[in-house]
């Protein structure tokens, strides 16, 4: 019997990467006088590195012509990026993806527990939930595991293992909801069944092992379409 749903955040609860995270990074880079910005395809490429600080580090390693930042400089720029992200989200530009709110409510009504397992910073999760679900948004979840709480980010299984431990549930009794191959890998390696709702950025990734691959969870009037080739389990 299904006892809990564990949600990824970016790409799964809401489409936050292109117009919120990416824009916040670019504003922070500009404020710090850095001589680069991430266009949409470049950001897509570096999204494969999970975690904003890790992403910036990976980008700099590939671009030795740019100033090489220390870890503490990266942390400082990333702190500013987090604040800018919160301001962008507060403008209401990242609605929940179709069907997400309905699923949260119907799962809760069916007695399931709800949790989050994400790579992003806790402040960002709070901003997104507050903007879409109001003051009580955070408390709709039994546990929120986010960011640097585990040493190894997705695709490592650590964050899902951590959330399972906090929920005191077995992996097989839960369902993970993800949008990316990194997230799928993380959840599968923690033993969870995984439902994928893909995004513009994650379309075409290898979702082998997912229970289903949908393009959205769908509202009753717009049912989610099951994409071909995604069913492997
Ligand atoms: C997505 C990520 C995050 C965000 C940026 O995480 O990899 O790093 O892109 O957030 P998920 P931070 O899909 O697991 O929620 O800058 O706060 O890391
Ligand atoms: Mg994601």
UniProtKB/TrEMBL annotation:
Entry-linked Gene3D superfamilies: HAD superfamily/HAD-like, Putative phosphatase, domain 2
Keyword Hydrolase tagged: yes
Keywords on record: Hydrolase
Molecular-function GO terms, alphabetical: hydrolase activity
UniProt keyword annotation of Membrane present: no
The protein's name: HAD-IA family hydrolase
Organism: Igneacidithiobacillus copahuensis
């Amino acid at each position: 019997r299904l006892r809990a749903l564990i949600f990824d955040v970016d790409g799964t609860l809401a489409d936050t990467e292109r117009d919120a995270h990416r824009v916040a990074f670019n504003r922070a880079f500009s404020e710090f006088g850095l001589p680069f910005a991430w266009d949409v395809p470049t950001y897509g490429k570096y999204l494969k590195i999970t975690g904003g600080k890790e992403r910036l580090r990976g980008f700099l390693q590939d671009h030795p012509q740019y100033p090489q930042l220390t870890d503490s400089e990266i942390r400082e720029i990333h702190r500013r990026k987090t604040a800018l992200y919160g301001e962008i989200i507060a403008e209401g530009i990242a609605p929940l993806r179709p069907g997400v709110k309905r699923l949260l409510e119907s799962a809760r009504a069916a007695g399931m527990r709800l949790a989050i397992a994400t790579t992003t910073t806790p402040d960002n999760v709070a901003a997104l939930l507050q903007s879409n679900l109001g003051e009580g948004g955070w408390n709709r979840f039994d546990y929120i595991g986010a960011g640097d709480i585990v040493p190894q980010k997705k695709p490592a299984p650590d964050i899902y293992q951590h959330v399972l431990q906090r929920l005191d549930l077995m992996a097989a009794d839960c369902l993970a909801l993800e949008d990316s191959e990194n997230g799928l890998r993380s959840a599968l390696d923690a033993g969870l069944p995984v439902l994928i709702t893909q995004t513009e950025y994650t379309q075409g990734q290898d979702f082998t092992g997912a229970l289903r691959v949908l393009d959205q969870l769908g509202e009753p009037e717009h049912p989610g379409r099951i994409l071909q080739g995604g069913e492997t389990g």
